[in-house]
Amino acid sequence: MCPVGKRKKFNDHPFPYHAEIELEIATLTNLGSGLGRIVLPLEPGGDFQAVRENPATAPAEGGWVVMVPFTLPGERVRARVFRNHKNFSEADLVEVLTPSPQRVAPACPLFGRCGGCQYQHLAYPAQLEWKRRQVAELLQHLAGVPDFPVAPVIGSPREYHYRSKITPHFNPPSPGLRRTSPPNAGAGGAAPPLSGPAGDRALPPMPIGFLRQGTRFDLVDVPHCPIATEAINLKLGAVREAVHAKQSEYKRGATLLLREASGVVTTDYDAVIVETVGELKLHFLARDFFQNNPFILPAFTRYVREQAAASGARFLVDAYCGSGLFALTAASAFQHVTGIEISESSVRFARENAAANTINNATFTAGDAAAIFAGLDSATFTPNETVVVIDPPRKGCDESFLRQLFAFGPRSVVYVSCDPATQMRDLRLFLAAGYQLVAAQPFDLFPQTRHLECVLTLRRA
To answer: How confident is the model at residue 202 (pLDDT cuts 50, 70, 90)?
Structure first.
């Protein structure tokens, strides 16, 4: 954010600020925005009127790129430019002139303002197909693997009300102001009065929600989230009332937690959650990482187990194992499984989960995944008899982990990722190390959003 009086001068090439243009959307980016190209008849300094009078769409290989969120391929739209970069412009959607047949009415009235969802305007089957295409394009452009047959995306059993965890944020009002009644208490939804020392200005109701689309700090008030479970939404109202009732006590912003399992919602970061996955019951702390779409987890973990077992290996190593999700759901297919995780609390729960589910062939170690192979029993976990499952953070695998993984040389690797872009970056290194890609299977753990999980299966050549 630029300091007051130091605002960066707007770059007016090729469009002036808030210029309105018409263009046709050609594709979707992996960030969920529509991408179109527009012919620029003149070089920098040319007549913008000529651009407005000739908003023809350029061929796919040419033309100036314009990104317009909440638009769909094949649509002709009017957009308002708010930023010009070196090689492309960003614009807000003003009007859809020719809608796509795949456009649907979004379920959330905040869609387009709240930055949480990107695809509520796109029919769900089309969402799945675009996500499959994006994995294929990332394979080609980032990993150098063209024409690989990416499997159809396995969709979520629930298109809405699937998220079992949300983390709304809030920022308190300016010092000296206090609210005299809860938000929305005014007639017609008007902001209730605020009182404070003389001279204080009234503020609008304090938003509790998520980042506004296209911003890094501005929050949108979200009283109801249609992608969160019904139980979470029932609890959300009471949580919001409690925060608003004592908002004058807050000195700084905060993040709330609402996590649900089996209809029970907790707001306590240290609460123990019990999640059922197939026949297993897994315990973990509410603050610890665990997949947020429990409805797709049986199919998701079954696929990982099947891909790992298909290698013929007798032993499995689960790096970044968390509370044991993949290790324990795959244990029945192997003689022995072991997991490693940097979070000591997660490892403690992984051990307890193994015992509670009478899984006797699983062990877990607390430590950095970058040192996982140093502690393995070399007599048992021989490379040719071992498959490794990895599910790293969004940033992907770090260099030290990959270096020792390649030195160990397991028979097969099943790579699970919530960010296919960093996954494809790592894939190039696997290919250079002598591994072959044998399967690419996306899963839609996050309907209505641009996010997805992708499982790559690699075999040592």
So the answer is: very low
pLDDT at site 3: 46
Q: Which residues are catalytic?
A: 418, 453
Average pLDDT, integer, range 92-109: 98
Q: Are residues 349 and 230 in the same domain?
A: no
Give the global pTM. 0.87
Higher-pLDDT residue of 186, 114: 114
**Are 89 and 187 within one domain?**
no
54 pLDDT more than 50: no
State which H helix or E strand residue 127 sits in.
Answer: helix 124-141
For residues 148 and 222, state if they share a domain: no
Structurally, the chain folds into a number of domains equal to 3
Between CA 292 and CA 162 the distance in angstroms is: 8
**Is residue 264 assigned to a domain?**
no
- Regarding whether 419 and 359 lie in a shared domain, the answer is yes
What range defines the domain where residue 93 resides? 20-103
Looking at 286-411, which runs of residues are DSSP E strands?
Answer: 315-319, 336-341, 362-366, 386-390
Q: Edge to edge, what strands does the sheet with 165-166 contain?
A: 165-166, 258-261, 264-266
Cα dihedral 388, 389, 392, 396, rounded to 10, equals 60
pLDDT at 204: 57
Paired tokens of 31: 């960030």
234 with 353, same domain: the answer is no
Rg (CA), the chain: 25
Domain of 409: which CATH number? Answer: 3.40.50.150
* Cα 135 from chain centre: 15
Cα–Cα distance for residue pair 433/389, rounded to 1 Å: 17
Evaluate whether residue 115 is within a structural domain: no
pLDDT at 49 over 50: no
409 C-beta neighbours (distance < 10 Å), count: 14
Do 189 and 229 have their domain in common? Answer: yes
Token pair 């729960």 is at which residue? 349
Residue 388, pLDDT > 50, answer: yes
Contacts for 87-93 with beta carbons within 8 Å, 24 or more apart? 88/64, 89/14, 89/15, 89/64, 89/65, 90/66, 91/21, 91/66, 91/67, 92/68, 92/214, 93/68, 93/69
Question: How far is the C-alpha of 94 from the C-alpha of 91, rounded, in Å?
Answer: 9
CATH code of the domain in which 89 resides: 2.40.50.140
